[in-house]
Amino acid sequence: MALPPPPPRFVLRGSQSAVNTLHFSCRSEADSPPLLFSGSLSGLIHVWNLQTRRVDTTLDGHAGQSVYWVKILEGQHLLLSQGRDLKLCLWDLAEGRNAPVDSLSLDSVGFCKGSVLTEGTQGCWLLAVPGKGMDEVQVLDMPSKTSVCTLKPEAGAKAGMPMCLELWKPPSGSGPLLLAGYEDGSVILWNVSERRMLSRLSCHKEPVMSLDFDSGRAKGVSGSSEKVLCVWSLDEHHSLKVCRTQELTNPGIADVAIRPDGKILATAGWDHRIRLFGWKQLKPLAVLDYHSAAVHCVAFSDPGRPGEQLLAGGSKDQRISIWSVYSQT
């Protein structure tokens, strides 16, 4: 008989509203405690110290509007946050300020999270966000906020709104590419430098809620409000194709995350559960049943500290569960 999954290693309470997004920062410096950033429905960002298991700092820059994306720019001590107030805020954590050092006004009223790609040039990075037109994605050079391009499907494509974005750079060293999941259930691969669509794949019957991509294996995964995970690959000609699908017990996949070592896939379910799969063959490994409401987000710690790989799940029940599972896989 299979062993039951373990309970959470610990639980973080105190966000006082639904948790929408999570991001780890586990720097390898001995004097830097591992941190977890959370964005909440109330518009607050909490910086959790995972050694003390308490909030170190609370950031308030979104006028009480829901925060649905947080992201650290590693090596720059900068935090990005995106909220329903149509603002993307930039926070300088090194200075210890409780106010944003810069912000960017957004045009889209949807829930599409941004995506960043750190460039070789020190201090510069690419940012992809939903654009002004309903079906547009805007790519900006940051921190200058210079527009690189606007990506829009051809007139007959009717993909609908972008729902999730993933900027990445191929190992071959060619220019940046963007994977975008759309309202019509398709995933589109864009060449950012050439401003053109390379491939389009119909994955889901419902809007793509989330996606993640393993650039080393040229393989990605997406989820929607259906009860099906879709795994797809990218060939040498930059053509997307479906590899396999995995049916789940219940519908509604709010988030997917591939562990940085490429061994484990986690999903956040509307059915209150976090599911774990082996990423190579999509073998079901465990169902983590702790939360009492929909799980909105999952995140893995970066492998900065060997042996300390953690998984976090954020829920509508206002709690963040921290798990140590398959750490030695």
UniProtKB/TrEMBL annotation:
<dbReference type="InterPro" id="IPR001680">
    <property type="entry name" value="WD40_rpt"/>
</dbReference>
<dbReference type="InterPro" id="IPR015943">
    <property type="entry name" value="WD40/YVTN_repeat-like_dom_sf"/>
</dbReference>
<dbReference type="InterPro" id="IPR036322">
    <property type="entry name" value="WD40_repeat_dom_sf"/>
</dbReference>
<keyword id="KW-0677">Repeat</keyword>
<protein>
    <submittedName>
        <fullName>Guanine nucleotide-binding protein subunit beta-like protein 1 isoform X3</fullName>
    </submittedName>
</protein>
<keyword id="KW-0853">WD repeat</keyword>
<feature type="repeat" description="WD">
    <location>
        <begin position="201"/>
        <end position="242"/>
    </location>
</feature>
<feature type="repeat" description="WD">
    <location>
        <begin position="288"/>
        <end position="329"/>
    </location>
</feature>
<dbReference type="Pfam" id="PF00400">
    <property type="entry name" value="WD40"/>
</dbReference>
